[in-house]
Amino acid sequence: CDIEHLTELMVADRNFNPSRYSVVLVSEGAMFEGGEMIFENERRDAFGHMKLGGIGDLVAAKLKQLSPRFNQGLEINIVSQKLGYLVRAGDPDAIDSIVPMAYGNLALDLVLDGIHGRLVVLKNGRYDNVPMDVVTATKKV
Fold first, then answer.
1. Can you give the residue range of the structural domain that contains 75?
2. Domain identity same for 44 and 98
3. 87 pLDDT exceeds 70?
4. Domain identity same for 57 and 8
5. 36-86 pLDDT per residue, tens
6. Treating both helix axes as pointing N-terminal to C-terminal, what angle do 55-70 and 3-16 enclose, rounded to 10 degrees?
7. Which of 21, 32, 47, 73 has the most neighbouring CB atoms within 10 Å?
8. 11 near 67, Cβ under 8 Å?
9. Is pLDDT of 138 > 80?
10. Residues 55, 118 share a domain
11. What's the total number of domains in the chain?
């Protein structure tokens, strides 16, 4: 991301907002222009992937540092908030209960029928199952 341009946009948005605030959302996979991905730590999961994390705090610090340049010399207070599952997902509805139950029941049916190495999926609007290698055959980046 071009952090200077982002800072300029944030300050402009804040100045035009009657509440005098602006919201900037930063994806864990975001990178500074010319930079690299930011990882939470050096540990790797079972597939060899490191966990992304920390870019939001770095962007917040940089926005605060650069804000005087676009805000008549005044620094803007920045609040960095990591969004957890509940904040991102909102209140659950009936579908949030029905779908996992259906997946679980279908997976149990496969096990009881002695069928292994398959994954329960929703395909063309219908529940189905596919071979596990459909999702594990290639590395996803």
1. 3-89
2. no
3. no
4. yes
5. 888 887 778 788 888 877 888 899 999 999 999 999 999 999 998 887 665
6. 70
7. 32
8. yes
9. no
10. no
11. 2
- SS3 per residue for the chain: CCHHHHHHHHHHHHHHCCCCCCCCCCCCCCCCCCCCCCEEEEEECCCCCEEECCHHHHHHHHHHHHHHHHCCCCCCCCCCCCCCHHHHHCCCCHHHHHHHHHHHHHHHHHHHCCCCCEEEEEECCEEEEEECHHHHCCCCC
What single letter denotes the amino acid at residue 122?
Answer: L
Q: Are 66 and 4 in contact (CB under 8 A)?
A: yes
**One-letter amino acid for residue 137 of the chain:** A
Of 52, 102, 74, which Cα lies nearest the Cα of 7?
Answer: 74
59 and 27 housed in the same domain: yes
